[in-house]
Design a protein that fits this description.
Length: 223
């Protein structure tokens, strides 16, 4: 069975033993055996492995993993060093540069954010090569909704960064009186100019963390 290696194991124990997850597991076995699936099997839960629940300060919600070769490694919007930055990530770095006047990071790997407490969670955790949303509706959303609900129950206020319609639909799972919701258009080239650029979310997230007596995220430290 799944072994995350931190507090998520206990938090999600009932999910990992549930019928829906066992059915999803059987589906994934067949998919990984017969097709090219991303991310690699051992990377599926990297977001949870790198960001224990006790460390979560921010939830950045994506949709499903990148579906090109060598891109996805279990963190939303992130790619491994040496992999060209996908368009959405380029726009994320463009907004970050506009907010902080920093040089865009050379690497598209965001493990540095994850280790600082940014849960880089996709709503669907696997995908077929070249087929976006191909694993949608197979059970991942039930699990990731449970993850969002678990973070929502934290006593400490958390920042939820919801970009695009798919992520914004999860607002209903979040206590808006306790947590900060930052929502806008998706950073995709198709929608970035409809509200993502100029959103100021990186600075606003850090201002909120500081207001709660928490340490801010060093956004320049991506790895």
């Amino acid at each position: 069975m799944v072994n995350i290696g931190n507090d998520w194991d206990e938090i999600l124990a009932d999910e990992f033993s549930s019928d829906y997850y066992l059915n999803l597991r059987e589906f994934l076995k067949a998919e990984y055996f017969s097709r090219k699936i991303y991310p690699p099997m051992n990377d599926i839960f990297n977001a949870l492995k790198l960001t224990p629940m006790e460390n979560v300060k921010i939830v950045l919600l994506g949709q499903d993993p990148y579906h090109g070769a060598g891109q996805a490694h279990g963190l939303c919007f992130s790619v491994l060093p040496g992999v060209p930055h996908p368009p959405s990530l380029k726009n994320i770095f463009k907004e970050l540069t506009a907010e902080y006047g920093m040089t865009p990071p050379a690497s598209g790997e965001l493990t540095g954010w994850a280790k600082q407490g940014v849960l880089l969670l996709n709503t669907t955790l696997t995908v077929r090569e070249g087929q976006p949303q191909s694993h949608k509706g197979r059970g991942w959303e039930t699990l990731t909704d449970s993850i969002i609900k678990a973070v929502n129950r934290k006593s400490e206020p958390v920042v939820f960064m919801l970009w695009g319609g798919n992520a914004r639909a999860k607002k209903a799972l979040i206590d808006t009186d306790k947590h900060l919701i930052l929502e806008c258009a998706h950073p995709s080239p198709l929608s970035a100019y409809n509200g993502f650029f100029g959103c100021g979310h990186f600075k606003r997230a850090n201002e909120f963390l500081l207001s709660q007596g928490n340490s801010p995220i060093c956004w320049e430290k991506t790895v």
